[in-house]
Every structure is written in C-alpha cells, then in structure tokens.
Amino acid sequence: RSLNTAQRITLARLLERVGRWTDCRDELVSIVAGPNTPPTYVAELVEKLIDHGELSSAKTWLTRLQKTTAGTAITTALEAKLAFAQNDRKLAAETARKLMPGGLVPGNKPEQLAALGRLMEDLAFPKAADKVFAQYADTSPDGVLARAEFLGRQKRGGEALDLLENSWDALALEPLLSSAVEVIRSQDDPTASIQRVEPWLVKARRIDPGSVVPPMLDAELLTLRGRGDEAERMYRELLARQDLTPVQHAVVSNNLACHLAKPSTAEEAGRLIDKAIAEVGPLPDLLDTRGLVRMALGRKTEALADLQEAVLQPSDVKYMHLAWAQLEGGDKAAAQQSLEAARKRGLRMSRLAPDDRERLAQLESALGTTAATEPTANQG
Whole-angstrom Cα distance, residue 326 to residue 251? Predict the structure, then answer.
C-alpha cells in the first residue's frame, strides 16, 4: 500500500535523522511538487534546504511559497533565515524584527513562537530571542523547557535552573531533568550547576524509584565532573537492568562505548555501538561514537566515513571529532576547517569530557591554534 502525504513527510524526517539528507530532500521535493500542497510542507522543505546549505534551491522554493503566503509569519521567518545564511545580516535583521511579539506571531500559536525564538537566537539577537522564549514559556510547558535551555545557552544557568525549579509541579519529571542536564552542558564551568541539580536527581529517585532516567542523567553528570570510572560503573549497572526500552538500551550502550573508545577497550566498545545501531538505526550521534571506536581500532578510513556522515546533523563536538580524525589521517587543512566549524558552533574546552579535552589539546598543538574566546553576542 502506498504512503499518504503525512506518512511520506514522516519518512522524509526520519531519513534526515539517520543522515540520509539526499533521500530526504528528494522525497520532500516529490511531495511539494504536486498540486495543492499545503504551504507548511513547502516551508519545511525550504528550511531544510537552508539548513543543509542548498541556498539556491531554497530561494527557488521560497519564491513559490511567497506567491501564496507572502507576509505570513512562517514565510517571513524563512526570508530572514535565508538572508542570514547568505550573510546579508542587515536584511535578516530587518526581516526578523517584523516577527517580534506584537508583530506577525500571535501568542496562541506556540509552535511558531518556538521556531521564531530559535531564529532570533541563530541571528544573534539574544534580547529579542529572550522575549520570544518568555512568551513561549507563558503558553506551553514545552516553552518552559525551551526557555530554560535557551537561558543555559546564553550562560544564564542560574536563571535557567530557577525557571525549572519553580516549574517542578507543572512539568513532567523526566523532561525537566533532561533540560536541567542540557543547561549544565552549556555552562563553561558546570560545577555550581551540577551541585544544584544533583539533589533533584536524588529526589526524582525517591519519587519514581523504577525510572531509568535519573541514573542515566547521573552518569552524564559524573562524566562532566571527570569521574569516568564511576560513570562507567553506572552505565554497566543500567545495562544489566531488564526494563530498558530499546531506545534507552541504545543510549546507554552508546554512552558506555564512548567511555571505552580507547585502544585497550575498543573491542568491547565496538560490540556495544554495533548493538545500539542494530537496535535504533545509524543515527548521527551513534555514528559519531562508532567513528571514535573505529579510530581506536585503527580503522581510520571507516572512522572518517562515519564522522563525515555524523556531521550532517552538526554539533560542535561532532565537528571536533571529525577534525581530530582528519588530523590523525594527515589532512591538516581539512582538520583546520572542521575545527573552525566546531568553534563557530560554540566549542569550548571547559565543556568537554576528559577524553575530548585531550583530543582538542592535540588539535590545538598540531594546528598551532588555541581555543576561541567567548564571542560577544549582538544585543539586538
């Protein structure tokens, strides 16, 4: 039986998540090329084309979208995003300002507030983004989590944790704790934030002793504090449990494999990450881990292929891993480019686990560079 349009959209999103961008794009183009396509589907294609750097195609499809939805919030947001991707910051700023609360985005459409907040943040307008995320937090529990994580990325960790703590009774426990750990990851010095959140995890275990989420997050905090042996022991205890879902089992296996991605333990790490990928598919985060494991096994060509595919869903750490593998493979020029891409996404030595700090130090020594200082954000 053939898939309906909604199912095809879901398929396209899944293809992107597992790193198959070309297949995702082709599926979306096939969908929106048909008659009477909802504008939201065209908008999704435009946004993904921008995200993947295909700006000429994005402009073509945006022009089509403008013919039917000119002046709407979603089209205006995409106009701003495309201008920013084309390095036209003046046009991007002028366009984005139309979207401020009180402008085109009504408060009763939280999904548009979420997209607008991310856009303002990407455009380096933190004050404007803060207003949008504050409005989003007033309309939706998801908005509280989104604003807390935004505040964390802005190095306002105390405010972020205040917001989560004050919303303890209004939010589901597991998303609240996950957002708290996300805030911690964003801090240059996470020590104070970790000390504040650790009692929350203790409380969560009392409330729901059977939940696997608090110990999983606890292990992440141990890693951030440089207590890798304790984190490894906790991950092994979790894997011994019989109540993990396939996704939880894959996450724990992936995290443990990261700890074991060194020559002395690489064989076990390989078994763990292969099992995780067999359970949930070749997701970018898992490919990133498998790349590190294959580096530890001396399989550099395969490792590089994994890491190049992993950055199709980019992050600072993934780009740093790719740079390290490229350096190990003797390609200093490519390593330099990947390291710069990592820095543009906020790479900071202080936020890395011990093994990654060693990799970054090796890169900086070999390339004659040092960690970038914290950028000054545009306060528009």
Answer: 26
